[in-house]
Amino acid sequence: MARVWIPALLRGMTGGQSEIEVAGETVGALIDQLEARYPGIRERLVEAGRLRPNIAVVVDGTRSRQGLRQPVSEQSEVHFVPAISGG
Q1: Which of 70, 74, 76, 84 has a CA between 20 and 30 Å from the CA of residue 31?
Q2: Total-model pTM
């Protein structure tokens, strides 16, 4: 199963867990599994069928340009990274 790191702002939805093992072949499938375990988490990550603009996904150390369609393997490490703003 892929290892998914949960950003600090969403850990309240996962009972404080920062890392969760999840099965799925794409980032979208991982989010589906997270939603099944932690209802409501999808709406914090996905908007109108795409990753929210304030969230980036990093798979195996590389920022994804494929969003929800990004393939993942059972050994993948997936990080949801909130965008940082400022000036």
Answers
A1: 84
A2: 0.91
Smallest Cα–Cα separation from 68: which of 42, 31, 13, 20?
A: 31
Say if residues 27 and 68 touch (Cβ distance below 8 Å): yes
Residue 3 pairs in a beta bridge with: 21, 77
The two tokens of residue 87 are 């000036």
* The CATH classification of domain 2-82, taken from the options 3.30.565.10, 3.10.20.30, 3.10.450.50, 3.40.50.2000: 3.10.20.30
Tokens representing residue 73 in the block: 């393997």
**What tens digit of pLDDT does each residue of 37-75 get?**
999 999 999 999 999 999 999 999 999 999 999 999 999
Q: Name the token pair of 45.
A: 């990550």
**Cα(first)–Cα(last) distance of the chain, in Å?**
39
